[in-house]
Design goal:
The chain is α/β, with parallel strands linked by helices and 716 residues long. Helices cover 50% and strands 12% of the residues.
């Protein structure tokens, strides 16, 4: 009846037609422009047959439809607004053609039906889902709202309140939850899905189910729409506040759209949805979040290719226990890779095991892990004072104190105990890998594996490539980090590697602002309103003044012409001299008291202003919020551009993802270089020239200036 490259329609028994999504040369179904066109053509072919009693919508893949083709979005959204509206209007004609077929339709949902995939299922009259299926509208995670009728059909099938909850969270729902919400009509065991869907289709075709009545609900306004819109206002106000705080307008846009469109017919509601979809598509958040999604996929592919060059890591060891060592051991054991945890101090071993137990306890109490499995994970961590069985691990991670002479001694010793082909990795945050490798007999097996604190939670691992590091070592560590559930990014050796190097000028800009008399609490407030999870003063407290000073001094020394730290006392040094190291001592820029769960709660500390007055020779000063943001972010953009020019990483995608995962850079920015593109590189050059008098941390490389002159961007 119809055969396309993504969709086919064929007669099956009892006068039924099967409309099957089966994309050629692909393991998944997705909705791109080709699929939407073919869907409309298939619907037209079915409608032309006068003897069809019903249509069964199925998928030949493991999943129903995983969603729209995100790779098309960046090019599509760069087109004029009218052209994008026209494209989505045509796509909705295909969805409407399915919904308007002159016979009942049933969608058999296997696996995932997300985004456009679920919207296709919503166009059917009835939905039967496998007990393993998940459905949802996750577009908000890309800064978007549904564009194929999701905001029109879901509130009419479930309720406006349910639709708003699904749209604003973006979380998929398991089949049981979807049934309770009336988003699907039946659940069947996965093996019996087709049989159950055909049985439901037979009921509709023979009149046992009123499919016309069901369809009419989706075509008309929601009964009592005006009253419903009034009831929704409180939820909409809360979502609007959240959207503003996170700089992601799509969080509330879907809710506002539902409130407006439930009083419209299908045609009017779809028109409103398309216009709002295109408006969201043109936002900074959508551009950034879509790029993040594509970059994540790119990093996964890269890691998979790199890790193929070495055998999988089956056992590991960590030198140095305590909080960090215990966290690394937990992250390894929890993913099924047993690990030895060695320290010369029994108290540190006890602390490391205590940290692992605490982390496992949280998993059990939250219902994410059964106690039996938690016991098994803990048993996979072997604490020891000596080097017993150190001839077994594939990878050994050194995580001792950040002093090069101590690390040299430990690395020399462990190399003599390890098997010849074992990979030794240092968890250093500031010392160069080439410097650490000097006493080693096998530097080709030595590499950096920089975890971010807290190691079990932070997703980024910087895999630091020394001058003599071999490809096998890189592949093994990338594979190990991936197996631990981390995102590994390979970076070149150098002061601060990547993330801490980019963070340093950001902190220098902060110290300079404070030195000019700007209130540190105001700077925190401005940067948090800009989207950061915490301002720079608060971040210093979390890192620790001693740790931050040590790392930043090393990095500043490595780049004396651009990142030189002031020789006069700055606010962080003054606080460190008084023993106010931040959260670890209970006092820093702020003071901290623990809540009942032991979490430190930030509070104002009035005496801080007196203590840092020596760093503010000209007294107090106020600056507009936009200048604070410009100075803080420009320093980060500039250093990111220098890192790319120096080959610390190979692509803007790798650099920006490292900052997002390692620093918590606001996601709506998409990264430092994506933000530079949004500002316009010409604007970045203008700002660099404006603030050049304040120091080298505002200078940008010639490569950026050349791009600006040509009207180019970091992301094409």
């Amino acid at each position: 009846m119809y055969q396309g490259k993504t969709v086919r329609a064929a007669r099956i028994a009892d006068g039924f037609v099967e409309l099957c999504f089966d994309r050629e040369a692909s393991s998944i179904n997705k909705l791109d422009q080709l699929a939407m066109r073919e869907l409309g053509e298939a619907a037209q072919a079915i409608a032309a047959q006068t003897d069809v009693r019903g249509v069964l919508m199925t998928s030949a893949k493991e999943f129903f439809i995983v969603g729209a083709d995100i790779t098309e979005f960046i090019e599509l959204f760069s087109k004029p607004e009218a052209e994008v509206i026209q494209m989505f209007s045509r796509a909705n004609e295909s969805m409407n053609a399915i919904e308007d077929l002159p016979c009942p339709t049933v969608a058999a949902i296997n696996g995932f039906a997300l985004g456009g995939g679920f919207e296709a299922a919503l166009a059917a009259d009835f939905r039967v889902a496998a007990d393993t299926a998940q459905v949802g509208l996750p577009e908000v995670n890309l800064g978007l709202i549904p564009g194929f009728g999701g905001t029109v059909r879901l509130p009419r099938l479930t309720s406006p309140q349910t639709a708003i909850e699904w749209l604003s969270s973006g979380k998929p729902s398991a089949s049981q939850a979807a049934l309770a919400a009336k988003a699907i009509d039946e659940i069947a065991p996965a093996a019996d899905l087709r049989k159950a869907a055909l049985a439901l289709l037979e009921k509709a075709a023979n009149g046992a189910l009123n499919w016309r009545e069901r369809r009419a609900v989706k075509l008309a306004p929601v009964p009592g729409a005006a009253a419903a819109s009034t009831q929704l206002q409180s939820a909409i106000d809360k979502l609007s506040a959240r959207a503003k705080q996170q700089h992601q307008p799509a969080i509330s846009a879907g809710a506002q759209l539902v409130s407006k469109s439930i009083s419209e017919s299908r045609a009017g509601a779809l028109q409103l949805e398309t216009a709002e979809f295109v408006r969201m598509a043109k936002t900074q958040a959508a551009a950034s979040l879509i790029q993040i999604f594509l970059s994540e996929q790119q990093l996964k592919r890269q890691a998979k290719e790199i890790s193929k060059r070495a055998r999988p890591v089956k056992s590991a060891a960590v030198l140095g226990a305590g909080i960090m060592g215990g966290g690394i051991c937990y992250a390894s054991a929890a993913r099924g890779i047993p690990v030895l945890m060695k320290d010369i101090n029994q108290k540190q071993l006890d602390l490391g095991m205590s940290e692992a137990k605490k982390l496992l306890g949280k998993q059990v109490s939250a219902g994410r892990m059964k106690q039996e499995k938690a016991d098994g994970v803990l048993a996979a961590i072997t604490p020891q004072l000596g080097y017993e069985n150190f001839d077994r691990p594939d990878v050994i991670i050194e995580a001792v104190v950040e002093k090069i002479e101590i690390k040299h001694a430990v690395l020399r010793e462990v190399e003599s105990k390890a098997r010849p082909d074992a990979i030794i990795a240092s968890n250093t945050s500031s010392l160069r890998i080439d410097d650490l490798a000097k006493p080693l007999a096998r530097p080709e097996n030595f590499i950096g594996m920089h975890f971010f604190n807290p190691a079990p939670i932070m997703p980024l691992v910087e895999v630091v490539r020394g001058t003599k590091t071999g490809e096998t070592a890189i592949a093994a560590v990338v594979g190990y980090a991936t197996a631990m559930g981390k995102t590994p990014i390979v970076v070149k050796d150098g002061p601060g590697f990547l993330v801490n190097r980019v963070l340093t000028p950001y902190m220098l800009a902060f110290l300079q602002l404070v030195g000019e008399g700007v209130d540190f609490a105001v700077i925190d407030q401005v940067m948090e309103q800009f989207g950061w999870p915490m301002g720079p003063a608060y971040l210093n407290d979390v890192i620790g003044m001693d740790t931050g000073t040590h790392v930043f001094d090393i990095i500043s020394t490595g780049f004396p012409q651009r990142l030189q730290r002031s020789q006069t006392p700055d606010a962080v040094r003054l606080l460190a001299e008084r023993g106010r190291l931040g959260q670890k001592t209970g006092m820093g820029f702020y003071k901290y008291e623990s809540d009942p769960a032991g979490k430190p709660i930030k509070q104002r500390a009035d005496d801080t202003y007196e203590l840092i007055a020596a760093a503010q020779p000209s007294g107090k000063r106020e600056l507009p919020a936009n200048e604070i943001v410009e100075r803080m972010m420009l320093a980060m953009i500039a250093e990111s551009a220098w890192c790319l020019e120096d080959g610390v990483v190979g692509t803007p995608e790798e650099l920006d993802m490292a900052l997002l995962l390692g620093l918590g850079l606001p996601r709506y920015l998409g990264g430092a270089l994506k933000y530079a593109d949004w500002l316009g590189l010409q604007k970045v050059v203008e700002l660099s020239d404006r603030y050049a008098r304040l120091g080298g941390h505002y200078s940008v490389p010639e490569s950026l200036r050349a791009k600006a002159a040509k009207g180019e961007r970091y992301y094409s």
